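Reading a protein record of the kind used here takes little practice once its layout is understood. An example of such a record is reproduced below.
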Amino acid sequence: MLENIDYPNPKSNLRQSILRADCENCFGLCCVALTFVASSDFTINKDSGKPCKNLQSDFRCGIHKNLSQNGFKGCTVFDCFGAGQKVSQYTFNGVDWRDNPETAKKCSMCSQLCSNFMRCNRIWLKHLS
């Protein structure tokens, strides 16, 4: 668990690696938790808690290689800083929102909160280095 990791050095590569997204261990939370507003960044409106139409059954994006060309420029600049896999694997113990639909909203809210927290950690680490 993350709380058992000892961080002896604020400039440690371990600390920075904890803030990296690991999509292989995530349930596509960025494709579910975020709200999309039709604009130059997204071609569709999408409410938070609803899966993006491009999210596949394996939790991968069906248009990931061509996001900008398909009108999803906003996705190309998003970084959860590791929140997705932490919420998926630690908070929800690997039980995804599709297998347990009543947790979908909780998963979405937790992902947003964790992502904001991870962003703050990233900023804090930049100031330490």
Observations:
- Helices lie at 13-18, 30-33, 73-76, 83-91, 104-128.
- The two ends are 25 Å apart (CA to CA).
